[in-house]
Amino acid sequence: MAYDLAKISMTALICPAFDAGVALTRLDERIARSPVGAGFLDRQNFADACASLWIDGELVHLEDLVLHDATKDVRTPTHELTIARDVLRTRRRIAAQSTDWALSAEGIRSLRQTSDTNSVGAEVVEPASGVRAAVAIEPEGEGKEGDDAKDLPGVDYAAIDAVLARSEAAIENATRPGRASEADRDALVYDLDWDEDARLDEWRGVLRQAENLPAVLQAIVALDAWNELSVLQHAPWLGRLLAASILRQAGITTGAHLAAINLGLKTIPVDRRRHRDRETRLLAIAHGLLAAAEIGLKEHDRLTLAKTMMDRKLEGRRTSSKLPELVELVMAKPLVSAGMVAKTLDVTPQAARRIVLELGLREMTGRGRFRAWGVL
Questions:
Q1: DSSP symbol at 151
Q2: What is the pLDDT of residues 260-290, one digit of tens each?
Q3: What are the tens digits of pLDDT across the range 245-263?
Q4: Which of 23, 27, 16 is nearest to 257 (CA)?
Q5: What is the enclosing helix (H) or strand (E) of 271?
Q6: How far apart are the C-alpha atoms of 145 and 126, rounded to whole Å?
Q7: Mean pLDDT of 98-106
Q8: Which residues, in sequence order, are CB contacts of 154 under 8 Å at separation 6+?
Q9: Count of C-beta atoms within a 10 Å radius of residue 130
Q10: Which of 108, 106, 118 is nearest to 174 (CA)?
Q11: Is 219 left (phi over 0), alpha (psi -120 to 50) or beta?
């Protein structure tokens, strides 16, 4: 079904869209001039990635994502945590590029490949050659004098070679410039009748129809159209990042600031976000953008106050004190573990725990082991 903008009444959307644009601009200006601006943006990326999974019906804890991003996992990463990390990295990638990159043909192609590879997992293609045939293994474990590694008893080298071959094929498939063809996709994972190219072209057509609207209205319509057209099977989260990119391209948000749309939409009841009436959904998105800006302003004020309080504890410290470096780390990350502190400050884990307590950070996990701390 075509997404027709002519049937949308813009009258009810103008006021909340205008308010959202003003609030987002105020937040952007405050971040640009704030001493905690860089730390705020990094925290926002983590929080928005977790909120993105929440909107899609999955739960990812912020502490797990922070530790996973720092390669300090305390348990095996789940599939949902892997997707959250992909959302996080995609946000950083978009923010690091020029403002018009994400919505360009090259940008969408690159981001689409990333979502195909990471959200579902690289398609594993068996190579035509390179796997050795299975050979009989000596049941006795004696071996002969001078045996090398290839003759070790009780080891199935054919199985090992098969695993290595599949891994090499997956890496090659994930790094090749072209996308996997529809025939190469697994029917158990993908709906082969789902024409993503046609849906993406239709979504671009909606963007062309909305190009004369104000930037906030463009983002609202683009996000609703992405959800209604279900452009990508396994990456609904990419549409929300592209909507934030529209705001960035128009100058509502600037620099490295990519609006945390997911944080705002999380506050909107699901029955409004997925309502059958399109105007109700559009209003829900507009209110979500306004909520995102308000949440950001409150979080910025909280971080500014926390930074002021911690700076007071630095007065009178020796120049060799590690506390200033710890303050910078704590302001840059939502949570820090003993391992992260020890690596950044080049101290032992015991010293890391002591200096964390000296700064007066709050333990956030409630665990006896693998603890993490954050600002009050």
A1: G
A2: 999 999 999 999 999 999 999 999 999 999 9
A3: 999 999 998 878 899 999 9
A4: 27
A5: helix 270-273
A6: 37
A7: 91
A8: 137, 141
A9: 12
A10: 118
A11: alpha
